[in-house]
Write a sequence for this structure.
């Protein structure tokens, strides 16, 4: 991942992130020195993407403990920074458990960084083989090098296809309102030499009907026990349109996005963000509703690409099997 600095790293006393709010205008690396800084960076999407908020949260926890803060309270504040991506809870709780057992949570956090990169590589390879014949792939939001500590989940599949020399054309949705697709995915893929074209979110159904799209591949913030999947707002509309057009729809995610304690998508807490994120250029009092995620029903998902294999319906048993493998 040498084309830009790591999405998150430990400097020895600070959590170093790429501040994703400034991309593509500038590549700014920022050191988070306090728990306050880490919580704020996660909540404001300075650092974003399920996998990297998990690893950032674990590093932030280790830092807080080193600074003498209360472990339980630090963990609680980190986990509350964003409610939908279960990776954050899993990673922070792993660091908290290590601390409780007298181990250094920093070792756990650093281990998670390495594991994430490794898991993403495996997802990429498995997805590459699954989607061997797909030449044009549509993706949503940003699931790549910025969102993980490796080459990404859904974008990992695209990088792996490119590495293998497959013909590949990517359609990246803009991803309103914060434009992770336009600002981050298009930037990231272009820098890596992947052929990418941006489309407005509102063009996606038409692209699926007319654009020769062979598959849709997206990430996940939480996969419920029955396979219902929460991901960036707009994912569900893509899945519905893909189903209508007969285009395969894949979720690519590390196993730590699977939450067997959440029975169905109805039980997933969906983060609602401030209306002002929608209101740029509009008058500030306009009533607005800004859910950050939606849930795609399991029945619309062709396969879930994880580091231990491509899971197929029925997802109840296949998810359980994958988690216990
Ligand atoms: O609000 P964001 O930008 O953190 O949302 C990100 C997504 O929805 C991604 O698809 C998901 O977190 C997977 S990142 C590997």
């Amino acid at each position: 991942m040498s084309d830009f600095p790591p999405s998150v790293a430990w400097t020895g006393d600070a959590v170093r992130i790429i501040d994703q709010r400034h991309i593509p205008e500038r590549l700014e690396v920022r050191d988070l020195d306090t728990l306050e800084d880490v919580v704020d960076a996660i909540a404001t999407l300075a650092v974003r993407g399920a996998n990297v908020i998990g690893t950032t949260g674990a590093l932030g926890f280790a830092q807080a403990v080193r600074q003498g803060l209360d472990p339980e309270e630090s963990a609680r504040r980190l986990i509350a920074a964003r409610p939908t991506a279960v990776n954050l809870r899993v990673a922070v709780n792993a660091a908290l458990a290590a601390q409780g057992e007298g181990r250094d949570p920093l070792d756990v956090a650093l281990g998670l960084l390495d594991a994430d990169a490794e898991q993403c590589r495996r997802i990429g390879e498995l997805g590459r083989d699954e989607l061997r014949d797909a030449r044009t792939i549509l993706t949503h939001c940003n699931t790549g090098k910025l969102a993980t500590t490796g080459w990404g989940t859904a974008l990992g599949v695209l990088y792996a296809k490119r590495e293998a020399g497959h013909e590949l054309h990517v359609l990246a949705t803009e991803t309103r309102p914060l434009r992770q697709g336009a600002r981050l995915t298009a930037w990231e893929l272009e820098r890596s030499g992947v052929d990418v074209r941006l489309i407005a979110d509102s063009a996606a159904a038409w692209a699926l009907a007319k654009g020769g799209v062979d598959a849709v591949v997206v990430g996940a913030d939480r996969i419920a026990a029955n396979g219902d999947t929460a991901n960036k707002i707009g994912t569900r509309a893509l899945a519905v349109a893909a189903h209508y057009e007969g285009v395969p729809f894949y979720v690519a995610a590390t196993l730590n996005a699977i939450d067997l304690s959440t029975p169905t998508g109805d039980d997933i807490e969906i983060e609602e963000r401030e209306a002002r994120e929608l209101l740029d250029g509009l008058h500030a009092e306009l009533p607005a509703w800004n859910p950050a995620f939606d849930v795609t029903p399991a029945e619309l998902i062709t396969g879930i690409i994880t580091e231990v294999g491509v899971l197929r319906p029925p997802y109840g048993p296949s998810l359980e099997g994958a988690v216990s493998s």
